[in-house]
Amino acid sequence: MLDLINVSYDTQIPNNVGLSSDKKVLKALEKWHPGYINWWNDLIPQKFQESMVYLRTAVSVDPKGWAKFDYVKMPEYRWGVLLAPQVDGRTIPCGEHKGQPAWQEVPGEYRNLMKRLIVIQGDTEPGSVEQQRFLGLTAPSLYDMRNLFQVNVEEGRHLWAMVYLLQKYFGRDGREEADDMLRRSSGSEEAPRMLGAFNEETPDWLSFFMFTYFTDRDGKMQLESLAQSGFDPLSRTCRFMLTEEAHHMFVGETGVGRTIERTCQVMNENGITDPYDTNKIRDLGVIDLPTIQKKLNLHYTLSLDLFGQEVSTNAANAFNAGIKGRYQENRIDDDHMLTNDTYVVWDMVDGQAVQREVPALTAINMRLRDDYTRDAAGGVGRWNKIIAKAGIEFELKLPHESFNRKIGVFAGHNFDPDGKVVSGAEYDAGLPKWLPTHADGDFIQSLMKPVTEPGKYAGWINPPKVGIDNKPGDFEYVKLHMA
Amino acid sequence: MTKLIDFQTDPSKYRHWRVEYDGPVANLIMDVDENAGLFDGYQLKLNSYDLGVDIELADVVQRMRFEHPEVKVVVMKSGKEKVFCAGANIRMLGGAAHSHKVNFCKFTNETRNTFEAAEADSGQKYVAAVKGACAGGGYELALACNHIMLTDDSASSVALPEVPLLAVLPGTGGLTRVTDKRKVRRDRADIFCTIEEGVRGKRAQDWRLVDEVISNAKFDAAVEERAKEFAAASTKADVEKGIELTPLQREIGADGSVTYSLVEVAVDRDARTATITLHGPEEDAPADMAAFTEQGAQAYMLRLARELDDAFLHLRLNEMELGLLVLRTQGDPEKFLAHEALLLNNADHWLANEVLHYWKRILKRVDVTSRSMVALVEHGSCFAGILAELLFSVDRSYMMEDEFEGDNRPLATVTLSEANFGRMPMGNDLTRLETRFLGEPESVEKAKAAIGEALEAEDADELGLVTEILDDIDWEDEIRIFMEERASFSPDAMTGMEANLRFAGPETMETRIFGRLTAWQNWIFNRPNAVGAEGALQRYGTGVRGKYNMERV
Ligand SMILES: [Fe+2]
Ligand SMILES: [Fe+2]
After folding, report:
1. What's the pLDDT at A483?
2. Which of B479, B449, B455 is nearest to B374 (CA)?
3. Parallel/antiparallel/unpaired status of strands B396-401 and B468-471
4. What Gene Ontology cellular component terms go with this record (chain A) (predicted)?
């Protein structure tokens, strides 16, 4: 176990922020760290805490240092505080302060707005670990188990990164917010996580893959916009987090891809050509493609809700203040102030979805969501290639953004996945075809049997093309602790 | 800044007032030099006044108390034929920036309050002897006197013509004093406040607008007689000789900084902040009041008061964009308390009494200063007694906790004294601690039990005497962020919010005067009906009436 009393912060917390000489942050971290370790210990089932996991640890931000692979017990993972290197002469990229030198300290007038953004981002990080806490028990392989834990420890590190910013730059309030990150917990009645999607269960591995593909991608987009922040420490923090986030989405995309690949393979081996021949397909122990589509529908739409209201003054304020930019702000060819620009957003008029132009400044959320949808479409295309290659007639697609929404202008209206307004009766009738049913859940759950032999995989999913860190197929990614 | 407004003056420089001393009676004669306005562009006709006239009046009132303690009755009269005072100069008001008007009104109100309270505080009773037109601010001068005599010459009247004539309100407590002090029936007050020509003769007395109406032939004699009677009835102790209020030592730097002997004002224009540092006494307290009187204006407690007072007035009128005032002290709190104790232990000595009342007035001036204010209780500071009172006057206070690296000054403390428990009431007649702890009166008792203890941060925090205590690690950042945030808010919203939050508890005539001035008069002063191109203030004197937007708001 980690010695909580004598933490050597320089060796145990890889950092490039001069932690050992930063009295202020050290004092705050000393108080926070034990709570974090407790949180972690209470969270993950004990036998995994004791297991040796082949993990990647970021020890520095240079290309050589950010991916060191070795066996480590998760509670001893070295969560680092790492910021992308400072860019000389960086300026605030957008809004009314555009062109002024980037802030190295929090400007007092934006303190609360900025703190709130960091708290919301920070709250999602431990949230997903909580949602995924029991998945280790049903991992389809040691390879997948390792990926799960990798994502988990990195989400833990992202929490660290946000906590560092709060403790370093936001004084007493920041410390209290950091404590509250450990007080809230996913799905709790008393103190739930701040955003809805992080209070939903992640009941099975297909959900996990969908989550890392769709919901971590929302995280990516939020990080991308915060990476554009005029507050330089926030920007640098988020830029480095993005390097890790890419792996989470890789886990999601390949996980769904390997599931699809296995389904198609088993269908072909058994001469099934109709993807809707559900019972027959399920009897063979793989997940039918329509069910995968339903899972996709659910996770995509939940993630769209994370972007908030289409028209938002908060988002406008944050952009105008230079606290949050747009996706790839520096590659956009405009004045970066949006003084007279407009942007097309959805609205509901007389029960119909219509598009209308609004001042672009107020449509920052909508724009980021559109960028997200484009980004998310890429992997769906690659999944369809797998299906096409197997010669099966089926195409996965992203549902229309009006479908199954709880936040924004579409909330409270009945849309089908094609974006057509339907009656209540039609909606009720359609739902079992559009979103996973409890029965679907039961079926998927029935497949969730752990496989812990190195190199072996559960029957519903294919092995990966290449191993992590180029390890061979039978590599023992997790040395399970046997009690 | 176009012209620096100086609040320091002395009788040798007066242009508008003169005082004739006659033993216990002083005649205060208003004789405004119409060509000596503070700014260009208007003439001070008919004994109308501007800020310059009022600065002199404030000086007269102050010197009356310190330099002429033998005076028991002050008779305010006009040096002009046919007019007592026509009020604030309309052309000046029409041409002045809104911010100047507001601060002008605030200062004139403070001066009215000061001479109104002089009777209770110092045994100096102000009497108005009104001959000729007494309108608007003129009548408000009279209203602040505690006895009004009006001649019955069938022409002289008292009036508040602001509403019908100018579409604004009387700005120095006129409406409030008519109903609250003179207790004029509200329907009569309604009539009175809507007729330009005002009320004369017997009716003025019947309606309690004045105390006496006297035939013109006997007026002067009656005034003289009344003054003598009041003087004879006064319980004010006889004092042979006052002290001289010598000129302040003051230097104004090119950057706007101001340096007095005990007070420094540092200015940071980018941050829109002025930092006011008060220094504790170097020397030991005078042995007794005789020694104090000997020191006169140089005595520490009086010198500090005068300098602080001037600094606040300077910042208010000359530095409108410095929205945040940071109050600091540096010095030995025990030594300060020794100086203060001399006054408190001899409060019945006339000069000790005057100095203590002066501090009371200054603290009230701080209370109504429409700037964000924060006190920093740093190591080496002397927030004790009266100076601790500043902590309860400002909007927030931050205190250093524990030792700071590389800082060998004595640890920050707050020490309460008797002065915090009754001697320095706010405008609402409560102490600042009673106001602070309105919902927890037991906290006042707890604080009282700690009188004389040098309270370090944790104890001060425990007793609720400071907003936040911050250690070495947090201090700099938290203070910086607070100041940046504060400076970024709308100054109007800050003014309104702070004025709302500062005066919890009961209303008094004083709080009503300031509150209504802030809320109503300042609103009206911003409306086109008063100040628009076709508004009444602009059209005044053109023969054309103001054109009003008739929508009720
Ligand atoms: Fe993350
Ligand atoms: Fe992630």
Report:
1. 59
2. B479
3. parallel
4. cytosol
From the number of C-beta atoms within 10 Å of its C-beta (0-12, 13-18, 19+), residue B371 rates as buried
Match 């009003």 to its residue by tokens. B548
Residue B374 bridge partners (DSSP) = B326, B396
Residue A188, CB half-sphere, CA atoms under 13 Å: how many? 13
Chain B residue with minimum CA distance to A173: B478
Residue B491's alpha-carbon distances to A317, A456, B296, B320, in angstroms, are 20, 69, 40, 10
Distance A161 CA to ligand 1 centre (A): 10
Domains of chain A: 19-479 (1.10.620.20)
Model confidence pLDDT, tens digit, residues B325-372 = 999 999 999 999 999 999 999 999 999 999 999 999 999 999 999 999
Q: Characterise B249 by phi-psi region: left (phi > 0), alpha (psi -120 to 50), beta (else).
A: beta
Q: Is the ipTM of this complex over 0.85?
A: no
Mean pLDDT confidence for A455-475: 94
Q: Which amino acid is at B36?
A: A
3-state DSSP assignment of residue B113: helix
Q: Note the ligand closest to the C-alpha atom of A223.
A: 1
Cβ-defined contact of B488 to A105 (cutoff 8 Å):
no
CA dist., res. B308 & res. B359, Å (int): 10
Closest ligand relative to A250 C-alpha: 2
What is the enclosing helix (H) or strand (E) of A72? Answer: strand A68-73
B76-124, pLDDT tens digit by residue?
A: 999 998 899 999 998 888 788 888 888 888 899 999 999 999 999 999 9
Check CB contact of A31 with chain B, cutoff 8 Å: no
Phi, psi of A368, rounded to the nearest 5 degrees? -65, -35
Distance from CA of A94 to the nearest CA of B (A): 19
| A359 touches B: beta carbon within 8 Å | no
d(CA B165, CA B539): 10
Q: What is the pLDDT of residue A1?
A: 40
CA distances to A407, B26, B150, B203 from B219, rounded to whole Å, are 81, 17, 8, 17
Residue appearing with tokens 């028990």 = A137
Q: Is B97 helix (H, G, I), strand (E, B) or coil?
A: coil
Nearest chain A CA: its distance from B397 CA (Å): 16
> What pLDDT was estimated at residue A10?
67
The number of C-beta contacts closer than 8 angstroms across A and B is: 35
Kindly list the residues from chain A whose CB atom is less than 8 angstroms away from the CB atom of residue B472: 23
Distance A468 CA to ligand 2 centre (A): 18
Strand order in the sheet with B157-159: B83-85, B133-135, B157-159, B199-200
Q: How many angstroms is it from A453 CA to the middle of ligand 2?
A: 27
Q: Given this model, what pLDDT does residue B334 score?
A: 97
Q: Nearest 10 degrees: CA dihedral of B503, B507, B511, B514?
A: 100
> Taking the model in full, what pTM does it have?
0.83
Amino acid at B229: E
Distance CA A399, CA A298 (A): 9
Would the pLDDT of B56 be above 50?
yes
Residue A96: how many other CB atoms lie within 10 Å: 12
pLDDT at B479: 94
Distance CA A89, CA A6 (A): 39
Distance of alpha carbon A436 from alpha carbon B328, whole angstroms: 66
d(CA B473, nearest CA chain A) in Å: 5
- Which residue on chain A is closest to B477 by alpha carbon? A171
Domains of chain B (ranges; CATH) run 11-233 (3.90.226.10), 251-495 (3.90.226.10), 498-539 (no CATH)
Of A439, A442, A435, the C-alpha closest to A302 is A435
Alpha helices in B169-234 (DSSP H): 174-176, 186-192, 201-206, 216-233
